[in-house]
Amino acid sequence: MFPTLSSLFEYLFHIRIFIPIQTFGFFVALAFLFPYYVFRSEFKRKETDGLINAFIEKELVGAPAFWLELIINGLLGFLFGFKVVGAFIDYKSFVAAPAAFIFSGAGSWLFGVIGALIFTAWIYIDRKKKQLPEPVVETKLVHPYQLNTYLVFMLAFFGFIGAKLFNTIEHWQEFLYEPTKVLFSSNGFSFYGGLIFGSLTYLYIGYKKGMKLVHLADIGSPGMMLAYGIGRVGCQLAGDGDWGIVNNHPKPAFLPQWMWGFKYPHNAINVGVPIPDCSGLYCSQLAHGVYPTPFYEAAVCLLFFMLMWVFRRKATIPGFMFYIYLILNGGERFLIEMIRINPRYNILGMSLTQAGFIGLVMLLGGLTRFVFIIINREDSLQRRRIVT
User: Fold this and answer.
1) Which of 142, 164, 181 represents a domain boundary (last residue)?
2) Measured between alpha carbons, how far is 185 from 109 in angstroms, rounded to an integer?
3) 138 shares its domain with 236
4) Are strands 55-61 and 136-142 parallel, antiparallel or unpaired?
5) 72: enclosing H helix or E strand
6) DSSP state of 273
7) DSSP symbols for 167-228
8) Do 288 and 201 have their domain in common?
9) Global pTM value
């Protein structure tokens, strides 16, 4: 496994170079970057088709900096000084465990305060230079795709909160015992928590800008599928604990061992038994081979994305792409949870994980909507026959 980009780079190019970035975090960033262009393309296509429209936005020009701007910039400056400068000051601790350093209380308070003052002064001076004797309100035409950068930032922010919240709920007993460890762990995130919070944020922003929810859902569906597939690639490469149960079944001859029962050597969370003759930070592997469920999900979801992308122009019924997403992603997750190690709950007489239950709801929701589409289509055809 490749817990950091250094190990992945060395494996691919046989060159040892220090890159203090975790592999999983890198792929999470890619899971925002590539869907960004998918969203942008779909926004443009839907606008060309006349399903969404550009909108007028008002902007106050020539006003001094507002207190909220000063606070936000001050916080950003503090985080920059506290963590980024702090990482250079305590370089050894950062190199030893980058994620642990980022999610801990370690940092430089002095440079955090200095950074807050600099960032606050910068926005104050910048607004002061542009200040007019009397602020004016200007209007400008904004195309939906121009919201992308803002959407990515807001989705990342609220998605992070949702992922942590759902993971905390899923590991409630552990949270009660060690709340700080659960909340500030660099590994504990729930995909569906991030998906739900991020999706609600995306729908709210788009709706406030005058776009219909059904079109927003269609626009976001291929990108969400792609983001999930890329994220699972990161899980597989890093070995972040999102694997399956022990697989003791005989391996099919046509599959390599790592696709059937994998021990995740050098995994990012350093669990399992020691690897003989290994030295360093990541020297553990699982005692028994488990189903490499992140690999299965990555392969399936990236395939689903390609199919959705190829056939998206033929989906003319509003909501069709979103219902397809619900069925494919929900069904995939419901099935994969049967061989994963997540905690199980007795729900409606079934033993399901939290993600398995959400996947089932998504699957049933998508199928239900397709039934309504078929019924409405039949009713429409019947009315046409009567009129004819």
Assistant:
1) 142
2) 21
3) no
4) antiparallel
5) helix 67-79
6) E
7) HHHHTHHHHHH-HHHHHT-SS---HHHHHHHHHHHHHHHHHHTT--HHHHHHHHHHHHHHHH
8) yes
9) 0.85
Q: Which amino acid is at 384?
A: R
User: pLDDT tens-digit profile of 354-384?
Assistant: 889 999 999 999 999 988 888 887 766 677 6
For 116, how many CA atoms within 13 A lie in the half-sphere containing its CB? Answer: 14
Give residue for tokens 């002064």: 121
Whether residue 270 is predicted with pLDDT greater than 60 in this model: the reply is yes
Tell me: the pLDDT tens digits for 166-181? 777 766 777 777 776 6
Assess contact for 301 and 330: CB atoms under 8 A: no
Same domain for 108 and 14: no
Structure tokens at 141: 């035409």
**What domain range is 106 assigned to?**
58-142
Kindly report, residue by residue over 207-216, the tens digit of the pLDDT: 999 999 999 9
Q: The tokens of 366 are what?
A: 């998508």
CA distances to 84, 158, 161, 187, 355 from 190, in Å: 26, 13, 10, 10, 8
CA distance 305 to 232: 13
The helix (run of H) or strand (run of E) holding residue 360 is helix 354-387
Asked if 50 and 64 sit in the same domain, the reply is no
- Phi and psi of 370, rounded to 5°? -65, -35
